[in-house]
Amino acid sequence: QAMIDRGLERLAALDDAVIPTRLDQPYMVAAALLLAERFGDALEPVTRAMAIARATRQDRMIPMLAGLRCMMVENLLRMDEAADEADTALEAARLLGNDAQLHPALMMQSQIRWLRGERADAERAAAESIEVARRPAPSTATVTTHCNAAALWADEQPERCIREMVA
Asked: In the chain, fewer beta carbons within 10 Å around the N or the C end?
C-alpha cells in the first residue's frame, strides 16, 4: 500500500506536459490501485490519462484505459458508467483493428451486459471475443478471455462452464 501511495503521489505531482511521454505510468498506478481494491482512488489517474491520451492523439491507449476504468466503476456498482466505458473500449479497439485489444474489450462488453441482465447481447459479445481471441498467438490474455467467457455459465450451466474452460 505504501508503494502504491508513493506512486500515486509522484503521479499527481507530474505536469500534464510530461505524462504523454509515459502514459504507461498512470496506467500502472491505476492498475495497482484496482488490484488493491482502491477503486475510487484509481479513477483520477486513469481519467487523467484518458484525457491526455485523447488530447495527444495516443489512440492506442484508449481501449486499455477505458477497460481499466470500466473495471473500476463496475466494482463501484456504477453499471451504466461501466457499460459506457466498455462501449468506449470496444469502439476504440474496433477502430484500431487490433485483435489484442479487441478480444478483451469484447469480453468486458460481455461481462457488463451479463451483469445488467442483457443476456443475448452478452452471449453475442462473448462468442465474438472467443472468435477474435483465437486469431493471435495464444497468450495469458487470450486464455483469460476464453475463461471469462466460460465463467458466464458458472451459475446456470456449470458443466458447460467447466467444459469450455478446460477446452
From this structure: C
